[in-house]
Amino acid sequence: MVSCLACALDPLPQPRLILAPYDALRLVNQSKTPKQLRQLYARILRTGLSRNPAVLAMLLRLYSSHRRLDLASQLFSAFPNPPTIAWNLMICTHAAGSAPRDALLLYNRMITSGIRLDKITFPFAIKACSSLSEVRKCKEVHAFTIKVGFFLDLVVENALNHFYLTCSDSVSRRK
User: Count of CB atoms within 10 A of residue 8's CB?
Assistant: First the structure.
């Protein structure tokens, strides 16, 4: 499948060969279309740079910015041990897009897989809870932030405050 993509897609900016992670990152930043990103990903696979966490994170970010959840998910699934930043990007993309339930599934999978969550993970999980009005799940996330010591982080606090305000408004509107 990768060889077919490389033949039929828009040409990428120079240089033609990727020799180092820096070259891949520079080309990722220059890629403007999903076609160019797919072609670049094919090159990255051929050169073995797909194992580089920085390259993976940059590609995921760009796929996400192009609203290509399918390509981002495919790339994420192909990575043997995605770093925390990759998990966060996937949770963020799903939470901000049309798949907040998938964001929560990824969040749960991250925990059960023993991946280290960081202060970036929680606001995205809370946003997904907010999109779904999942009070019980948000309380679980809140409890987990307390357990791991991120409950005093300003961004986490703001996300929780926004969720609880939004939830109390929607409960009031239903009455």
Answer: 9
**According to the per-residue pLDDT averaged within each range, which of 1-10, 29-38, 81-90 is highest?**
81-90
The pTM for the full model equals 0.76
Q: How far apart are CA 30 and CA 32, in angstroms?
A: 6
Cα separation, 148 vs 131, whole angstroms = 24
pLDDT at residue 169 in the model: 52
For 84, residues 6+ apart whose C-beta sits below 8 A from its C-beta are 115, 116, 117, 118, 120, 121
Retrieve residue 69's tokens.
């959840």
The three state secondary structure string of 150-165 is CCCCHHHHHHHHHHHH
| Residue 76: C-alpha distances to residues 16, 64, 87, 97 (Å) | 25, 12, 8, 17
Give residue 99's pLDDT band: very low, low, confident or very high (50, 70, 90): very high
